[in-house]
UniProtKB/TrEMBL annotation:
It comes from Eiseniibacteriota bacterium. InterPro entries: DUF2891. Pfam families: DUF2891. The lineage of its organism: Bacteria, Candidatus Eiseniibacteriota. This is DUF2891 domain-containing protein.
Length: 343
């Protein structure tokens, strides 16, 4: 059962919000490794498919969200516009341009892991869509999909410790997205690697320091991200025991304070707007963690109640008023509302 209330934004309104961003080139924030003056070019030339939505990863997950909403709502009035945007971006020529940009050795760390994880989510969505056009887009995206997969596979064994941050570099959230892709495409080699690394990093963790969350510009929870990954890796009984050791005080006052939705003091500020996204990602992580517990477990009810509170707070902040949030919060709303990673 979804933790999202009926007052959530409509799929149509989310499509409009996302469409207003994915084709909007400016303002733009790019992390661009330059070799010479010739590399000083506009975003639409550097990354011809994913130049909008302020930054590359937001444009990628904006396209994922359009694909997901179109796939789950066939015949909806917004479907044609979502398809048109996908058809404009996901052409062989534009994806070849993306692959050429990412492909040089000096850009081996480009958008790793967060942007690459969302790219693989887009690829998974297209593969799961039983549709002729989607199959064409999937085929066009395949070279970039393969590049992203290989970059992740080469990098993971070299990462000595997980990044336990509340922003883009967080290891756990990206591995959740990549692991789900690996299972869609039956990439057993990558799936096994992620499971091994997750266990090596997180299996022995005890008593997560939840009092230290959140930081002032978080849009992800380090503790919940880790737990959401481990519920994907561990069998149900093992996960229930692991969670008891990792978050032993879920019914305590300390946990209740931590499981309280946050409020952005200034949604027009790009860093402070992250806090609106924190409510959304906490909500889907809480729901995912709860889904791995037995229905009669008291912890499940507590986690689902917290997920509902965070979902309500997060979804109420999704709007087009400030581009600081409007360029990316729609995708997070779609991930939560459609129960991606759970359903």
């Amino acid at each position: 059962m979804s933790v999202v209330a009926r007052a959530a934004p409509s799929a149509a309104s989310l499509v409009e919000l996302i469409l207003a961003a994915v084709g909007r080139e400016y303002p733009s924030h790019i992390v661009h490794w330059m070799r010479s003056d010739e590399d000083a070019r506009p975003p639409r030339e550097l990354t011809p498919a994913f130049f909008g939505s302020f930054d590359w990863h937001s444009c990628v997950h904006g396209h994922w969200a359009l694909a997901r909403l179109a796939r789950l709502n066939p015949g909806a009035p917004f479907e044609a516009r979502a398809r048109a945007a996908l058809a404009t971006s996901l052409t062989p020529a534009k994806i070849a341009g993306e692959a050429a940009y990412l492909g040089i050795p000096e850009r081996a760390g480009f958008e790793r892991p967060y942007g690459l994880a969302w790219l693989l989510q887009l690829a998974a969505e297209l593969r799961e869509w039983a549709d002729a056009e989607a199959a064409e887009w999937s085929a066009a995206l395949a070279p970039l999909e393969a590049l992203a997969r290989d970059r992740v596979f080469a990098w993971l064994p070299k990462l000595p410790w997980p990044v336990r941050s509340g922003v883009h570099a967080q290891t756990a959230l990206s591995l959740c997205l990549i692991l789900d892709w690996s299972r869609v495409v039956k990439d057993h080699e990558l799936e096994a690697l992620i499971a091994r690394r997750a266990r090596a990093w997180f299996e022995s963790d005890l008593d997560a320091p939840i009092a230290y969350e959140p930081s002032g510009n978080d849009f992800l929870s380090p503790a919940l991200g880790e737990a959401d990954l481990m519920r994907r890796v561990c069998p149900a009984m093992e996960f229930a025991g692991w969670l008891a050791a990792f978050l032993p005080d879920l019914e305590s006052d300390r946990a209740r304070r931590w499981l309280t939705p946050v409020t952005s003091p200034d949604p027009s500020d790009g860093q402070l707007a992250h806090l609106d996204g924190l409510n959304l990602s906490r909500a889907w992580m809480l729901e995912g963690i709860a889904s791995a517990l037995a229905p009669a477990e008291r912890r499940r009810a507590l986690l689902e109640a917290a997920a509902r509170e965070h979902a309500a707070a997060g979804l109420s902040a999704v709007s087009g008023e400030h581009y600081a949030g409007a360029h990316w919060l729609g995708s997070y709303a779609v991930y939560l509302m459609t129960r991606r990673g759970i359903a």
